[in-house]
Amino acid sequence: MAEEETYMFWIWAMASTIFRLFLIFFFPENINLSSRPELSTPLTSLRRLAEGYWLKQASLSPYAESMFHGSPLLLSILGPLTIQRIEGKSSHHLCSLVFVIADILSALLLRATGQKLQKAFRLNLKRLGLLTSLHDRGILPCGDIAALVYLWNPFTILSCVGSSTSPIENLAVIVSLYGAVTRRVPLAAFGLIMAIHLSLYSATLAIPLIFLLGYGLDAPPIKKFLQTRHAGVETTGSTSDVSKQDKLTQTTQLFSWRTVLHFVFWVLVWSSCVLVLCSLSLKQYGGLEEMFKRTNGFILRIEDLSPNIGVFWYFFAEVFDFSRNYLLIVFNLYILLTGIPPLAFRLKHRPCFLAFAYLAFSSILKSYPSVGDAALYLSLRALFVNELTDMEHSCFIFCGYIGFSLLSPVMHNIWIWRGTGNANFYFGNAMGYACFQFMFVEKSVNAMLNHDQALKKATAEMFKNSAITAIF
Amino acid sequence: MATVNRDNVEEVKTDDGSPKIKPRPIVRLGIFLIAHSPIFSVVFSAAGVLALLLLPLLAKNTYISENALMPGSARSMLSNQDVSDGSKLVNDIKNCRLNHEGQGVEVQKLIGKYMSDMGAEVSYQKFHPEGNQFHPLHFFSGPDSYTLLENVSCASYGVNVAGIIRAPRGDGKESIVLVTPYDFINGGDYESLSLGIVSSLFSLLSRVTWLSKDIIWLVADSRYGDYRPVAAWLNEYHSPSFKVSELLKCDELNTADNFRRAGTMAAALVLKVDGRSERFEDTLSIYAEASNGQMPNLDLINVVNYLAVHRQGFYVKVEKVVSLLSSSWLKIFGEIFEAVGKLAHTLNPDWNFGIPAADYLEGSATLASSLYSQALGIPTGPHGAFRDYQVDAITLKVSPRFPPDSKTRQHDFFLRGARLLEGTIRSVNNLLEKFHQSFFLYMLTSPSKFISVGVYMIAFALLVAPLPMVAASLYIDGCKALTNSTHNSAGNFKSWKWLDAAKQVFALHLLGFIVTLLPYFICQVPGQHSPRNRSIMWGTTSSSLLLITFVTIPGCSLFSSRPHGTNWAVLKSVTIAAAFIGLCLMSIINFATAEIGALLLVPTCLMAQPIKPALRSRRVKSLLGAFCSLVLVTIGFPVIFFAISKGLLGEGLGGLSLGGEFWIWLESLWAWKSATYLYIGMVHLPCWLLCLCILFHPS
């Protein structure tokens, strides 16, 4: 059974690779996916990267003329590929091959992460004594599912085929999660630094990674369960279960400061490495200061107001200049304060899920979001298929995602090409999409909390039963 | 849909016995609607159809929305001298064609000479009449995807002539285009009259001082149809090809490096003269529909209509479906509406919505034609080519009331036609920006009456409103049934039960997508095949693909007797959701297609129910329901619907010739990049197949 499943997994993974290659080489050129605002943002567009590379070749700063806003390291790696041509094909094909490899790597790492999480899930159920043979059979191979969701998600395929660098950003995020889950601290730190370097919003991942390294993998809040048990023990006055309790107390881990310090050390090492490399590559062109101004500053100051699927471009195209700075501060703080601390308090026992929630949250409120970000958090969500079996409104949200992602190019077309619509149409679509994303995150978090609640109820019930049997 | 679905979960919650909180009024309304969805779906659908019938009543009078246009405020400057210039050109063309027997490019040269005598810059353009090539993904790409054919021969090509008058007050960045399609080989006498009118106007415009936009006069070589030369010229204008075409060597006319441009186009007018008017006045027909139901700005039509009616005394009309004028049921509706309107007027003199039954008939015949040509997505004239470049354009077809050889009448006719164009150009010349003030989304019920998007969307919204309601209520039912049947096994996946049904829906939509692309590959099959054979090929491949889908994907099998397959209620719910998304998308791309599609698809989807239990129960009501759904599904099949609509138009068809006809019809759709084809293949066909699956569901 299990063998057959892995077999199927490899077949589907191979099929997705072939499908990508087919699309890369046989997709009609005149559709020009790389110019779609849904796929390539000013940060992730490969066309802009090629432009930056040309500027650099011409001994100009790659950041000149506000064309390129990505990382200089990515420029050094992908830049030479943008001018190499496979005979008779246009130049983006080599880069697309890199993206395909990145996608496959991400999927494999996701699968390994998922297997770890699945093991942890089973272990936790066993610890709580809830694992029956029935349940055991019902546990889904979440790693395989997440990897396949990542590989076959139309969003991933489109951003891979459509020449945007988001597959590489996603790979960095997944590497950091994988490193933390398998407790390879240097790898986790490397992934985090690369992710932050490529897109600033991944900095929020530092919190879940620290939790992950400090507390260990996702688990139900066992401490709380113990408290309810203690209460139960006092009322029934029984002490027969002491040994089991001890076992549980032992398993609840304390926050391991050592690993976290280790992590911080590696973060410092890697960040200094990245900074040194960047400053070397940009030595003649203004150095690090220029880089921070043109990448991170560009992200935070929302300078490019061309339409995208986010919600900020429209707003900042409308505001008066004198209130612009104030609103920039308000919006950036909004992301920082409303999203991050509450979720961290509520979900600190489930760091991987917290990472999902942060990524989803930041992909809604990003200044330049693309569907590649959605692809990442949707597949991370698939890691928790076991926990989130009864999410509310799943069908409705699914239909909403499909509807709005199909509507987006139509709205763009009637605004830009037909001239019968206007910016409000496209922005309305973006708002609807953001609403559905919010709903998705909210329902997922709700379902996770309900799952914990249900586990708590079940253990309390079981303990009550065992206490009663102990009395008699 | 948001409230509706939110509510169904709210309802489930209270069923589970969790503490009951009194829901908000809107939630309660949603629950109420879902609980009584059968009644409401009938009510809403009927209201949708009624609203469609009411549309001619709700039409408003057009008005000129952009103040800068000021039509008819300036006195016409056209003199008799200009008109006699035009008449001279017509005569010369006649003589030239007699002398040269329609060979070479003498007529083009003659027109070019006239233009340059008037002080215009003249350029010639050779183009190749492209065959109708189907490429599946051209639907999504812009207009600049005309590929240069590699092996062009000199056997067939056309030559366009374009003259440009530079505006004395302009900066050369904007222009107005006049197009006269003319068949240089076998154009009739009437056709050359259009050259005469525009030539008179051109002679005037070369002298005036008020022009601030350049004027382009394009004489399009229409021996291969009206549309193609205009499209070729526009393509060259907007995206010049730097390859040297083989066509240059075909004759002595050197067209290399002399293509002239004049900035962005503010508007374009296509003038055609054909046949004799059946009425006492000269008739002016306005054609406005471009590809995929796009319309030019309403202000352009308003200006032309205003000038033609109030200044030049033309009888203005737009296309209408003539057969509807004599239909008795529509007349009955018209009389009922008239009576209701009169009654309302007696109750309150302020209520003036009633219109006479005859007006209603006229309005609905025009509306039907408007709906039909928008739904087809095929442009009704050469103006369609302009819309691809976001230029507002209309075709004016003038029918004079005199025979072509009457000299005195011709002078008067030229004077009035040229004055109409002069007034229109003067209005457009006043504009500082593109047309934007008035409507782009509208339908005409007469040249001076229109229905705006806000009104006609109501009919569509009412028609599709039952879909989310019924989907929600079926979803709840189906989930309950599934929970009961699988209660004993692991009760996991409470909310993911729809996944099986979604898989099936997805598989059939994928199939629809493949079937949509198949004609591209069938066209690649070597050898000459008749349309009939091609349609047979298409039919057999599609049905074998369908069989493969049914066999390989376990959930999809039509006739399997597995008791625990997907629950039909959940399947129907997901189908309806898919149909709803598809129809809503289509309503934004092309409203008319979505409206007609909804008229077909909504009842089919709502009525579809497994017929096995109905046959088993032998109750009259359920048997009647099963019969209705069978009939609806039969009509819903695109080929059969095509045959029925052909039959209604009075062209009997049967058997295999039907397939050929259908193929030719589809070919015309994809030659014009009509989104209707995509709708049929990717929304209608899969939903129809799913309805079939539900109908024969083994429950």
UniProtKB/TrEMBL annotation, chain A:
GO terms for cellular component: GPI-anchor transamidase complex. InterPro entries: PIG-U (IPR009600). Keywords: Endoplasmic reticulum, GPI-anchor biosynthesis, Membrane, Transmembrane, Transmembrane helix. Pathway: Glycolipid biosynthesis; glycosylphosphatidylinositol-anchor biosynthesis. The chain crosses the membrane at residues 7-27, 187-215, 263-282, 326-345, 352-371, 391-411, 423-441. GO terms for biological process: attachment of GPI anchor to protein; GPI anchor biosynthetic process. It is found in: Endoplasmic reticulum membrane. It is a multi-pass membrane protein. Belongs to the PIGU family. PANTHER family: GPI TRANSAMIDASE COMPONENT PIG-U (PTHR13121), PHOSPHATIDYLINOSITOL GLYCAN ANCHOR BIOSYNTHESIS CLASS U PROTEIN (PTHR13121:SF0). This is GPI transamidase subunit PIG-U. The lineage of its organism: Eukaryota, Viridiplantae, Streptophyta, Embryophyta, Tracheophyta.
TrEMBL record, chain B:
It comes from the Eukaryota. GO terms for cellular component: GPI-anchor transamidase complex. Keywords: Membrane, Transmembrane, Transmembrane helix. The chain crosses the membrane at residues 29-55, 453-476, 505-523, 535-554, 574-602, 623-644, 676-696. GO terms for biological process: attachment of GPI anchor to protein. This is GPI transamidase component Gaa1. The lineage of its organism: Eukaryota, Viridiplantae, Streptophyta, Embryophyta, Tracheophyta. InterPro entries: Gaa1. The keyword Transmembrane helix applies.
